[in-house]
UniProtKB/TrEMBL annotation:
The chain crosses the membrane at residues 27-46, 66-88, 164-197, 236-261, 281-301, 308-333, 345-371. Keywords: Membrane, Transmembrane, Transmembrane helix. The keyword Oxidoreductase does not apply. The keyword Zinc does not apply. It comes from the Bacteria. This is Membrane protein.
Amino acid sequence: MAYIKKLGGNDMEIEQNSKPKAPKWHIFQIIGIMIVILSLLALFLVPDSLSQLFDTIMKEVKPVVVDTFLTSEVGIAVIVSVILGRVLERLGFTDGLIRLFVPLMRLFKINPAVIIPSAYNILGDINAAGKIAGPILVKAHATKAEQKIAVATMIQSPQSFATFVLGLIALSIFGINAFPLILLAIFAPLVVVPFLLAKTIYRDTRKVNLDELPRFTPKTTFMNTIFSSAKEGTELLLLIIIPAVTIVFIFIGILKFSGVWEPIETGTASLLTMLSIEPNTGIVSFLVAPTLAVAQLAEAATTIDPRFIVGSFVLANSGLPIYVIVGQIPAIWAESSHLSEREVIEAAVIGMIIRIATACVLGYFLTPFLVGS
């Protein structure tokens, strides 16, 4: 059979016995065929394996999504905490906090704008903190080093106000005085971390006077603030927390079914115990949601060693879980600042290392003064 090949103009060349090129296989086509073959083999050799896998996943997901977030006080606490946080914001809490910390940054010869994402994040929304603070840092002519300091410092604050509130509940159940812990774990890092990073890793800083600080107190009415924050809290619970928790526990279920999860969990638990962090809730903070972790602290008060509560509280009140640090934060800051996604991840990881060290130090040295023997 002859095929016609166009050379240019009206000239034609007839190729005899030539064949059309075979289509290239895409990598996902190959993976898809392998999955089909493996599924058929599993159905033939172990007919109930897929049902067992699905059952394992359901047993992992259901207790958390349904029993913890939908039918217990935890889900309501998430919504209520968002309402309280937005009311505090409407009353000027964030503006007051930023104006207290900005002068301290001037003393350290650091652009005061670096404190804005952390102070805003105290009331909890790490994504909004990046969207709001990134452009402010650019407008304030913050260097790339100072923008990295801002990211690393932001990781020291709870990524959800619900985590902070539920953590306070857990502390009260264990009879722990929250004031010194909040002072040292939440507010002190806003000053200490920028100072340490400016003197060590990110030295390209300079003293800048902000001509005009942005306003963070909304102008909405109080009734509008209450009802819109209730909607925001519900969306946070149903559209962010529960989907994220479901996805993570699906993977945990798959790993459990494959027999891989147990050694991972055992090794991680041993490491967290060495760091004076309650292992089970520490793993939840890292992989799933700190909100769930502090809720589990409160629910399992009779079975958890009180000596691990301080470290667990500090770890949970951070930028975790890990997929936020390596996923959401880089995407947001790369769009709103001068940093690339890789630079944001590096700064966020440095911030997380500092947070783990803080949890360990406070867990070892502060616990004896807060928890009775």
